[in-house]
Amino acid sequence: MKARSVVFTHVQWPFTIFGLPPALMILAVAPAVAVYGLAILLGGIALSMIAFALVLAVGLSVAYRLARRDRHIDSVALGVALFWNVSPRRWLLAGASPAARSRRTRP
After folding, report:
1. Measured between alpha carbons, how far is 61 from 53 in angstroms, rounded to an integer?
2. Cβ of 42: how many Cβ atoms within 10 Å?
3. Is residue 73 part of a domain?
4. How many domains does the chain have?
């Protein structure tokens, strides 16, 4: 008799930081940090914190809406190349010969 484990992914909650997956949190904070650094470089020190706060608020609100709609949006958006239309080629080579695995061709 085989033991079987049933995984209910629709019930499981992924690890979150303040309600957002870590990768999505990084994607929300990175543009704010870039705007902050750009404002500092351009000499807008007084506007840098305001711009940082505005871009961070917009980024976190968009990320929070995405996370509320789908709990696993980070794995969907960041783990699948076809989501971003990066490559139409399938990269899963399980069971392929070593020659096929070592060959890297660009489409």
Report:
1. 12
2. 10
3. yes
4. 1
Rounded to whole angstroms, how far apart are CA atoms 55 and 48?
11
Q: What secondary structure letter does DSSP report for 19?
A: T
**What pLDDT shows up at residue 95?**
62
pLDDT digits (tens, 9 = 90+) for 45-102: 889 999 999 999 999 999 889 888 877 777 776 666 555 666 555 555 566 666 665 6
Question: At how many degrees (to 10) do helices 22-41 and 45-69 cross?
Answer: 160
Q: How far is Cα of residue 11 from the mean position of the Cα atoms in its chain?
A: 21
Q: Is residue 58 part of a domain?
A: yes
> In the prediction, which pLDDT does 37 show?
95
Task: Tell me whether residue 72 is in a domain.
Answer: yes
Range of the domain at 76: 23-84
On whether residue 67 sits in a domain, the answer given is: yes
